[in-house]
């Protein structure tokens, strides 16, 4: 008789052991990767828990009472409740922003194109925008499929802790932006050797200059360019946008007939923004050693010397703000275990003090990298917010 209760118990235990990482900090990098996936596809685990609960009820009906059935039901119910947290945590945001969340999009997404499969489509053209250290720095260009953005374009800066990653890591988003009428330039920058705070920032500025110098070729306006970055790339996007023309953070190339690397706006996904603070207040060090990552990027600890501390400040977007700072959209998740969400609020506070145009978007359930699921709850909200932000700040202005 007890054998019939084992299947529901296994189903419910599997669901609980998976969804628990939606709310519990991961004890290591691999579990963190798993937690991102579970958070973004949590309703599939809700279905698994519900199946376990129903199977348990059926077994109880057939075989009578049993403590094992009760235990299985409690476990399944707990897993089911936790799995609903991502959805219910964004409902109020969706209502406030008048965004319709699509259950069909959410469930269909796992069967349709993913960011991994999208890389194989090759519906972009690769150009070399500069040469450095004997190698070419490249960018992928996604041309708009509709003429709706008034010559506006978006330069995308990839993630990777400043020492990894590659252009077009999130091709679905590039293709989606192109479908809205934007020309997308997804760029590489130097990730080695470290410290590379100067070269990485300079490469982003170099890419901006290259795009401006080729504006006529791509039928875009050099005055309607936005930067969009993720994680370390978001930091570089913010820093490049906020420090345009600063000789201490120069572009690594010069383009004829281009005198500046100014951009109209910047979009930041989960960026570190206050580097001295981030060094002293890391997120989950079991997942990533934030202080060590920053030390490699900047060449030491901010407590080592005044010179290195000044580097941390120089490379911090929070220290680069003025009333002329480009309009900024800041996006962060409440369950981010790599970059604490205070990075967003600290920068937003400085932007408010300077009366600089900005908007924040906080996704309570979201992990670092949540937007890898292009059809998830967080991504559906972000897509609407990005479109509104770009339309207001680079498309119509």
Name the CATH homologous superfamily of the largest domain. Alpha/Beta hydrolase fold, catalytic domain
Q: How many alpha or pi helices?
A: 16
Strand content: 5-15%
Spatial order of the strands forming the largest sheet? 1-2-4-3-5-6-7-8
Rounded radius of gyration (Å): 23 Å
- Give the overall shape: globular
- Structurally, the number of domains stands at 2
Q: What is the SS-derived class? A: alpha/beta
Classified by CATH, the class of the largest domain is Alpha Beta
Give the rounded overall mean pLDDT: 93
CATH architecture of the largest domain: 3-Layer(aba) Sandwich
End-to-end distance: 71 Å
Helix content: 40-55%
Question: Can you put this structure into words, describing what you see?
Answer:
By secondary structure, this protein is α/β, with parallel strands linked by helices. The chain folds into two domains: 3-83; 115-395, Alpha/Beta hydrolase fold, catalytic domain (Rossmann fold). Helix content is 47%, strand content 12%. It has 16 helices and eight strands. Strands 1-2-4-3-5-6-7-8 form an eight-stranded mixed sheet, sandwiched between helices. It is globular and about 80 Å long. The mean pLDDT is 93.
In brief:
47% of the residues lie in helices and 12% in strands. It is built from 16 helices and 8 strands. Helix 3 packs antiparallel against helix 4 and helix 9 packs across helix 11.
List keywords for this structure.
397 residues, alpha/beta, Rossmann fold, 2 domains, 8-stranded mixed β-sheet, 16 helices, 47% helix, 12% strand
